[in-house]
What we know:
There is one protein chain. The protein is an alpha+beta fold. The chain has helices at residues 22-34, 37-44, 48-62, 78-106, 120-131, 148-154, 201-205, 233-241, 285-296, and strands at 7-9, 19-21, 67-69, 74-76, 110-115, 139-144, 160-165, 174-181, 183-188, 247-250, 261-265, 272-278. The protein is globular.
Amino acid sequence: MAAHTARVLVTVSAGYDDTVETRELRYFVAVAEELHFGRAAQRLAMAQPPLSRAIQQLERRLGVVLLHRTTRSIALTEAGSVLLREARAALDAVEAAERRTRRAADRPGVVLATKAGASSELLSKLLDAYAAEPGAVTVEVMLCGPGEQEGLLRDGRADVALLHRPFDTTAGFDTEDLHTEQQVLVLPAGHPLANRPHMSLAEVSALTDLPLPRWPRRDGSYPDGPGPQVRDHTQLAQLIALGRTCAVMPESVRTQLRDVHAIVPVLDAPAVTTVIAWPPHSRSKAVADLVRTAIRL
């Protein structure tokens, strides 16, 4: 991989080189995840002896013990656990930088990731306002499933994203809050509860005739439960209209509903804040201009 020559700065004791190469980090991550030098070497397509020597050299370079070794097992030390976490983040950043660089050469512009069906009105206003700015570049919108925007932003497939607290994780990103709203229950029009002035989350969970939908986890599997499996908001809206489920959603969903839907405020549901997020190391003028436009809106 081209990142072999990239280096990550670390603090070490005198007498050794003051940098750690990404090659060494990849070696360590493989060993730390496999906890077996043989399996790690096979995973890296290399022989075991040079892998063992590389890890020993890394420990000498850092001046710490990363692995507890016995004849039967390998375990991470506290320092090793810290390096595993930091190494993963550093390698992800290197790969994201490579991906953004290649994408910039192939098709210049900004890639914005957002959850399909969410923040539609805000997104439309943002794109129109940015397009009117001097020097605006093309904005490619990636519509994602729940929680996917964060991953696209972290791995470099997106330059900026619209995230929603408290559902999405914003740790590690620079962010600006754009809009905060309450949540409502969306249910079929004509349902006996459609005329209620408000409801609670406990009452929503107790609706046996309208079980809550099941969204996919990050690994693609679905949690157990009586509700239907859903992949996106278009499918969810249709299932609600058919009387198969209900959903607690941000109040702005009103603009996307039809007369086959009804909404009831859910007073104790957490407020949802839409934020615009971008990598903290980004130096893209286009991203900065897009963020400024979003804040101005």
